[in-house]
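Help needed: design a sequence for this.
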């Protein structure tokens, strides 16, 4: 059995970057849940997709919006194709082991590992004096999310690579400190549990195209929920006329014609990347043959149509799901129950390895 785990923060509305960089890939993992290895053995993959609400409070947040953002994010996972009969969808704060393992891992994670985190530095700069301990600790909570499920495949966008490396380092450090030699075996024996590895080292699975969708107002910075300018991103739930307007106004350059990978034309690459990503199966050449000679004025409506066409069915499914939150709550409860079973088992092993008095 292999496990896949990933999550998105329920801060504001999810955007095209979250969808193309992460969620869409989750659906692929889910649909390939049964594969064969080279020897023909069946490999089953269990998928866990989490709404990481504990992460969402690491930046100032509005308590009157968190519940709605959480439900909306979960509904979007389903609308984008996550099927609760194949994957577990749950809310991070519903499984208490996440917060608890974070504390254990905090106590073995050197401060200077966290001081190196690029996202912390970027976000902390924006907050100045009031930056919270939680923001600093964000990557340890993320490591706990992953390690609790012994997940080895973590589909994320490019910006999460460093956090994934850290999760691997923390896992290794834990094993070096507590699982080498006979001590761990003895502790497991005393607790009456098998001495299996506590954690599994996770791997980042990053899509080839779409792993870094850039802002509509600056082709050199990432499309992001925290950009105060809403026109810098396409939210998955933006109505068609809003999408058309945002594309109409988005930043371009003074050149005629479109091309990939010209470092002086980041907007061209970004908009072509989006155009390709919303039309699965089309190659770069094929895209260029269609639109390469167009002016920006000709390309923009074609791009906007392609985005609208791709998002419309997702938006319709979203609306249908949100008509009845009872169903959504049931999905989240089933997801949390299944997640809790695995997470508490791992937490118990971590506590035993660290020498806690775990009740028999
Ligand atoms: P968040 O909410 O910031 O991002 C969620 C996912 O979206 C990807 N992403 C992008 N991909 C392409 N282009 C963009 N412009 C873009 N912006 C965001 C992110 O890489 C991410 O995959 N820390 C995680 C949430 C998390 C998590 C986890 C992920 C918490 N625990 C455990 C995996 C496993 C994050 O960045 O959320």
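Sure. Designed sequence:
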């Amino acid at each position: 059995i292999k496990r896949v785990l990933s999550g998105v923060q329920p801060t504001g509305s999810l955007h095209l970057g979250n969808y193309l960089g992460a969620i869409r890939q989750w659906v692929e993992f889910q649909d390939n849940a049964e594969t064969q290895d080279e020897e023909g053995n069946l490999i089953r993959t269990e998928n866990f997709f989490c709404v990481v609400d504990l992460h969402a409070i690491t930046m100032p947040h509005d308590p009157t919006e968190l519940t709605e953002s959480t439900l909306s994010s979960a509904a979007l996972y389903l609308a984008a194709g996550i099927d609760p009969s194949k994957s577990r969808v749950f809310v991070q704060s519903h499984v208490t082991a996440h917060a608890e393992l974070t504390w254990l891992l905090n106590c073995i994670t050197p401060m200077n590992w966290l001081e190196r985190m690029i996202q912390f530095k970027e976000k902390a700069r924006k907050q100045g004096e009031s930056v919270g301990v939680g923001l600093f600790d964000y990557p340890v909570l993320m490591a706990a999310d992953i390690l609790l499920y012994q997940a080895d495949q973590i589909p994320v966008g490019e910006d999460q690579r460093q956090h994934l490396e850290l999760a691997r380092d923390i896992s290794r450090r834990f094993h070096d400190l507590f699982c080498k030699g006979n001590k761990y075996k003895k502790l497991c024996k005393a607790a009456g549990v098998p001495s299996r590895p506590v954690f599994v080292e996770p791997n980042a699975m990053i899509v080839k195209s779409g792993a870094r969708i850039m802002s509509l107002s600056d082709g050199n910075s990432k499309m992001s929920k925290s950009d105060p300018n809403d026109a810098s991103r396409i939210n998955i739930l933006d109505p068609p006329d809003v999408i058309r307007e945002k594309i109409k106004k988005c930043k371009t350059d003074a050149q005629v014609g479109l091309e990939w990978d010209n470092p002086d034309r980041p907007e061209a690459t970004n908009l072509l990347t989006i155009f390709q990503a919303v039309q699965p199966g089309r190659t770069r050449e094929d895209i260029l043959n269609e639109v390469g000679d167009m002016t920006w004025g000709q390309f923009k409506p074609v791009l906007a149509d392609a985005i609208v066409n791709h998002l419309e069915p997702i938006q319709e499914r979203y609306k249908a799901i949100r008509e009845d939150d009872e169903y959504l709550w049931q999905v989240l409860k089933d997801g949390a129950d299944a997640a809790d079973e695995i997470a508490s088992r791992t937490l118990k092993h971590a506590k035993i390895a660290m020498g806690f008095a775990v009740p028999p």
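The chain has a mean pLDDT of 95.
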